[in-house]
Amino acid sequence: MPLFHSHTIDEDTRLAIWQINEPQDFFIAQLKLNEADYSVIRSITSDSRLTEFLASRYCVRLLAGIDEELTLVKDEHGKPSVKGHPLHISITHCLGYAGAIISRKGPVGMDIEPIHSRVMRIVSKFLSNKELSYLTPSREIDLATLMWSAKESIYKYYGQKGLSFSRDINLQLPIGNDSGYIDAIAIASSGNTHHKVHFSRLGGIMLTYVV
């Protein structure tokens, strides 16, 4: 299956989303995995999660244009990077899709989420009272999914455990319907920082990213 979506943000930053129709063997053959990778693979018991895991790493390889062995490592907070290469990356996957964003100049965060009513069950856990007021009846599922995904992207950008979605990531009303951006303030250990979280609705999934 060709790429579902790709986007060049600037000369140093690109993202891609892959719609997964291939078997796991396809990705394993492309990835040139080492023993450390196989150790991780053996620890994943869900067949669908393993396929998404492999596909997201395949996206990193495609974007980076690296033909030799490519090993992803995680720091103490779980933030991934590419061993031996000066790349900032973020990876994501959901229900038959996987994606990645890479940059050569600074931190990035990316998320994809299925647009589904089940997000409404947890909105009070990740949105502030002000953010809850943005949920108009005609678009509440889209907006809730978008704001959840936006906060995921910011969380991945920082890779900092303990960052509270409802308390430490504050969103303004999104600018745009199917694509646009959200102004956000992140209250992290390094201080308060303003971000623009870009988003696009791509069929049944929501894409967000921050650079």
Primary descriptors:
Ribosomal Protein L22, Chain A; 211 residues; 2 domains; 7 helices; 11 strands; 31% helix; four-stranded antiparallel sheet; alpha+beta; five-stranded antiparallel sheet
Word description of this protein:
The chain is α+β, with helices and mostly antiparallel strands and 211 residues long. Helices cover 31% and strands 34% of the residues. The strands form 3 sheets. Strands 7-11-10-9-8 form a 5-stranded antiparallel sheet. β1 (3-10) and β2 form a beta hairpin. α1 runs parallel beside α3. The radius of gyration is 17 Å and the shape is globular. The two termini are 28 Å apart.
Overall shape: globular
Q: What structural class should be given to the helix and strand makeup?
A: alpha+beta
Number of helices: 7
Percent strand equals 25-35%
Describe, in short, the structure shown:
With 211 residues, this protein is an alpha+beta fold. It is built from seven helices and eleven strands. It has two domains: 104 residues, 4'-phosphopantetheinyl transferase domain (Ribosomal Protein L22, Chain A), CATH 3.90.470.20; 100 residues, 4'-phosphopantetheinyl transferase domain (Ribosomal Protein L22, Chain A, Alpha-Beta Complex), CATH 3.90.470.
List the helices and strands and how they pair.
Blueprint: E1 3-10, E2 13-19, H1 24-31, H2 35-43, H3 47-64, E3 72-74, E4 80-82, E5 88-94, E6 97-103, E7 109-114, H4 123-126, H5 129-132, H6 140-158, H7 165-168, E8 169-171, E9 179-188, E10 191-202, E11 205-210
Antiparallel strand pairs: 1-2, 2-6, 3-4, 5-6, 7-11, 8-9, 9-10, 10-11
